[in-house]
């Protein structure tokens, strides 16, 4: 799914209006009705008080359309206008007038006013700011946002949690709505997926706001969200007459005394993802461990007992995963330097190999074409330096990727694959994967995918997706705490099989039950 910038969304709104010869207000009405339908399907007429906070721009206008629709259908609605400016938009004003048809006069909130009384069982709709936010909010609006956050009532934001910019970091972390559910127009925004800004919402859903589809499809975006739909065209099926030689010989270089398990995990993941052959290059101390725990793997031993001191072999690997469990012994650093100068095979560089590169940056020039770097946040910082916020981190990573012509995978809850100016945000995976060795599994998978012939960008996008999906499937029956890295390996097959499962049919709206929906909503609510 494409992720549009705020400018691109405004362009889409303007194009939709011009091309389809509709007014901006008609488009807002359409969006407001979609939001109303979302509520109506879930609430089925329940008389829970709904407090709608509307700004004076078009986000607020959409809130007023929702308010009018809810009133028309007999809901218990309280509307407020957050009067942060006297520059009200035309469509806000049209809808401000129209809600009065229902003999409802929204309460005006401005500096110095008491904030409305609310109960924690109520529902709040946040339509204060949308993507038009362009500067820090005034103190009283910030206080209102803090008041809403402290209310403990279920909060649904329209388009974005107010105070959150789609494409850069908020100046003040307290001046952002903590939303339980964000109903976003057409496609999610970049800030929904970054660790510092994604925390402002628990869930989101993209609603059809009626923007011109043809135009949306024609826009090139820098950012894409990766789900099954994006993955299916990347998958290459196996040939009937295939033999193991076709799917490549992978080499995993790593391990040191006490860290042979990392190589075992990566090698088994590499096999499970489909490599034809696998060899592990390890220090002598790992020989029996590896041959016993993974009989499918071949092993080449370094002459040293505990560390890798020379990377030499007589095989021709199609891809090499390097760095896991490697350590940073002086002899290992020397071996890595010598190896990088002669190696031509694409690399998947992880863990200590990244740390060695970070303190010997000139070595980055010797990294072979088509290589992938897989840093977790600390390793990334060592490579690209400190960043001011997550958006700055992305810019620095892009610059790094371009400078050294490498794919960089920024590991995290939403792992991001960066190649030059493009960012691919992964949407599988779960916090159960924050466990020792899960990164080693990813390294093995990526190596195995390149060996099978996927180019490095495709291998990165596909590998990260399958890794997360395997973790998600493993989670069932295990739970977050018990999931360990070997479980991810064991479910790689299921992650492949899941690609070909039909998507679940959308469930019909449930008939209203005695228990009102809002109870359910309050029970699952977890504000920070
Ligand atoms: N037909 C349509 O157009 C549709 C629009 N839709 C909806 O419109 C939303 C975008 O609307 P929007 O452009 O009016 O911006 P919005 O976020 O409501 O902000 C209002 C204005 O506030 C101002 N301002 C900014 N920062 C400020 C600050 N810190 N403190 C005080 N004032 C501040 C700034 O104006 P300024 O003062 O800079 O001139 C800004 O323009 C979008 O998110 C979606 O929900 C959908 O319903 C689909 C149909
Ligand atoms: N909260 C999370 N949600 C989804 N995936 C996660 C989460 N935390 C970690 N992961 C994934 O687990 C892996 C951890 O990698 P890494 O930190 O290198 O682990 P290790 O060094 O122990 O192998 C990454 O692929 C990362 O994306
Ligand atoms: K909002």
UniProtKB/TrEMBL annotation:
The reaction(s) this protein catalyses: (6R)-NADPHX = (6S)-NADPHX; (6S)-NADHX + ADP = AMP + phosphate + NADH + H(+); (6S)-NADPHX + ADP = AMP + phosphate + NADPH + H(+); (6R)-NADHX = (6S)-NADHX
Indicate which residues the UniProt annotation says bind (6S)-NADPHX: 262, 325, 376, 440
Q: Which residues lie in Basic residues bias regions?
A: 518-528
Which residue ranges does the record assign to the YjeF C-terminal domain?
227-499
Identify the residues that the record assigns to the YjeF N-terminal domain, covering every copy.
9-217
Q: Where is the composition biased (Basic and acidic residues)?
A: 505-517
What detail does the entry give on cofactor binding?
A: Binds 1 potassium ion per subunit.
Q: Which GO terms describe its molecular function?
A: ADP-dependent NAD(P)H-hydrate dehydratase activity; ATP binding; metal ion binding; NAD(P)HX epimerase activity
InterPro entries this protein is in? Carbohydrate_kinase_pred_CS, CARKD, Nnr, Ribokinase-like, YjeF_N_dom, YjeF_N_dom_sf
Which keywords, in A-to-Z order, does the entry hold? ATP-binding, Isomerase, Lyase, Metal-binding, Multifunctional enzyme, NAD, NADP, Nucleotide-binding, Potassium
Question: The organism sits in which domain of life?
Answer: Bacteria
EC number per UniProt: 4.2.1.136
The record's annotation in Pfam families points to: Carb_kinase, YjeF_N
Q: Which residues bind AMP?
A: 411-415, 439
Does the keyword section mention NAD?
A: yes
Keyword Isomerase part of the UniProt annotation: yes
Q: Note the subunit structure.
A: Homotetramer.
Q: What is this protein for, i.e. what is its function? A: Catalyzes the dehydration of the S-form of NAD(P)HX at the expense of ADP, which is converted to AMP. Together with NAD(P)HX epimerase, which catalyzes the epimerization of the S- and R-forms, the enzyme allows the repair of both epimers of NAD(P)HX, a damaged form of NAD(P)H that is a result of enzymatic or heat-dependent hydration.
The identity of this protein, by name, is ADP-dependent (S)-NAD(P)H-hydrate dehydratase
| Taxonomic source organism | Kordia antarctica
The encoding gene is nnr
